[in-house]
Specification:
By secondary structure, this protein is mainly alpha-helical. It contains two helices and two strands; from the N terminus they run αββα. The mean pLDDT is 88.
Amino acid sequence: NQQAKAYADTFDKVTQMRPHVKIIKIAKYLCDDKACRMTLGDQILYRDKHHLNLNGSRHVGQRLVAENPGLFGQAP
């Protein structure tokens, strides 16, 4: 989608100017190579078309912390 590309282009420019900034694409926590899921097991992950609900936020947050242990000041 064109809006996503515009954001990606902006993020790319930011990371070129500030190499210490890390972009984490959270779609990998919600999508596979075929589709993006709205549910995980019997839990709905979104509150509307674009925003995660509490279940979705917890799922993404847990994955972020697990895959990026130093991200929030935790020891790797």
